[in-house]
Amino acid sequence: MSALGGAAQVLRFDPVTIEVYTGGHKRGATGAMIEKGIREARQEFTRLLKRVAGGEEVVITDRSRPVARIVPIETATAAPLRSRAALRASVRRRGRRLSELVMEGRERL
């Protein structure tokens, strides 16, 4: 699919996401949105990334037509580990134990 006619192509740069524009403007959680032309965005890219990292959204335009959107990446926070026993209980074992496979491999040598 073409970048402008199908699903958005996502490029990841920590801590932001750049999506190729495919539809109408959507404001981020903060509601802040900045529009910049390609030339302006290229000249101010570092400043724009700092603003995006702060929660703002940037729409890049080509002759007033939106072509890309730079939005902050939503980071998921990991739940703290309660205990090793809880971790072991949460992992399902499939097949044979690793120690058995290692021993079998050593016997073949």
Give the arrangement of secondary structure elements:
Elements: E1 10-13, E2 16-20, E3 33-37, H1 38-43, H2 45-53, E4 57-62, E5 65-72, H3 84-90, H4 98-108
Parallel strand pairs: 3-4
Antiparallel strand pairs: 1-2, 2-5, 4-5
Task: Report what the structure shows.
By secondary structure, the protein is an alpha+beta fold. It contains four helices and five strands; from the N terminus they run βββααββαα. The chain has a domain of 63 residues: YefM-like domain (YefM-like fold, 3-Layer(aba) Sandwich), CATH 3.40.1620.10. The chain is 30% helix and 26% strand. The N and C termini lie far apart (51 Å).
Please provide a brief summary of the model.
With 109 residues, this protein is α+β, with helices and mostly antiparallel strands. It has helices at 38-43, 45-53, 84-90, 98-108, and strands spanning 10-13, 16-20, 33-37, 57-62, 65-72.
Count of individual beta strands: 5
Distance between the termini: 51 Å
Mean pLDDT: 76
Which CATH class of the domain at 10-72 applies here? Alpha Beta
CATH superfamily of the domain at 10-72: YefM-like domain
Specify the structural class.
alpha+beta
How are the strands ordered across the major sheet?
Answer: 1-2-5-4-3
The shape is elongated
Stretches with pLDDT under 50, minimum 5 residues: 1-7, 22-30
The helix-strand sequence is: EEEHHEEHH
Q: Would you identify the CATH architecture of the domain at 10-72?
A: 3-Layer(aba) Sandwich
Radius of gyration: 23 Å
Strand content: 25-35%
The major sheet is characterized as:
5 strands, mixed
Helix content: 25-40%
Number of helices in the DSSP assignment: 4
